[in-house]
Amino acid sequence: MKAIIPVAGAGMRLRPLTYTQPKPLIPVAGKPILSFIVDQLIDLGVTDFVFIIGYLGEKIREYIERVYPQLNTKFVNQEERMGSAHAIWLARDHYADADEIIIFFGDAIIDADLIEFVKSTTSCIGVKTVEDPRQFGVVEQDREGNIRGLIEKPTIPKSNLAMVGCYKIREVQTFIEACAHNLEHNIRSIGEYPLTDALARMLEWGVELRTIRVDNWFDCGRREVLLQTNAIFLDRPGFATDDPPPYDNAIIIHPVHIGADCDISNSIVGPHVTVGANTKLINAIVSDSIIGDYARIYDIVLRKSVVGNDASIGGMRHSLNIGDNTEIDFGG
Question: Which ranges carry the Nucleotidyl transferase domain (predicted)?
Fold first, then answer.
């Protein structure tokens, strides 16, 4: 089994953070999003990976080769972003000989027992019920649960069952032909060639597809979801820093994850804070936030914030002389 991981997106909704940092490498509870996915697949026994890279792709390649040198990895560059099916089709030479493939989008964390994917005797799609499915690929089913349609980002959804970005494909050659068919006939949705349409073509050709519901799905493309996911995983065993080193006049409110070689003084950190390596926090109060590597945070109160690598922010200390019956709100 081979794993195909598209990571070519630009992370538009997380800008300006993603101007210099690819979204799959943004840390959640001290661990890049992409590592959650790769580690899950390694636990399933997958050793062959194909990454489709694009925007800031060299950073992803460098990270994978440095952290996972034991894996058999291939990298394919999607120079023009034309959709997920186009991206995966570009890499076809690296998986065309596989008996089956697993596809995982590289910007979401999925809580699921993936053994069910591995053991499935048919091609399958990971799904979860959502409140507003209009921004996702949607699965339409009959009363018996059979898939009757797959629609990409429908304006008026007939179902609230969203595809969460994990798939198992057993009919590999048929899948490649379905992608090629849509490309050759210029069959697009919202100007692109999404994976949803390729799977819909396979369904039309008589391939059996089934759904597998996942427990949790963290689509980390928005700041509020990124921070919520960070908090959820810090609350779980194995992610928070249980015994941080002593810092100078600092209070640590658990759970937090603090990277190596940080300098924290006269500060309060936590709860639900991830701090990258080699970061300085001086005269700061930080809660419910993600701070990157080599950042400098000083003289400031931060909450529900995401600060990138090598960033410097501070200078919000105030000296006030306030009279009776006064109310001041600095917008916090």
Answer: 2-231
φ, ψ at 32 (rounded to 5°): -60, 145
- What is the DSSP annotation of 99-137? S-EEEE-TTEEEES-THHHHH-SSEEEEEEE-S-GGGSE
Can you tell me the distance from the alpha carbon of 198 to that of 179, in angstroms, rounded to the nearest whole number?
A: 5
What b/e string do you get for 23-55 counting C-beta neighbours within 10 Å, with b at 16 or more? bbbbbbbbbbbbbbbbebbbeeebebbbbbbbb
Segment 270-318, tens digit of pLDDT? 999 999 999 999 999 999 999 999 999 999 999 999 888 888 888 765 5
Tell which residue, 104, 110, 126, 124, has the closest CA to residue 5. Answer: 104
Measured CA to CA, the distance from residue 50 to residue 52 in angstroms comes to 7
Full-model pTM: 0.88
Sign of CA dihedral 214, 220, 221, 225: positive
Q: Which residues pair with 140 in a beta bridge?
A: 149
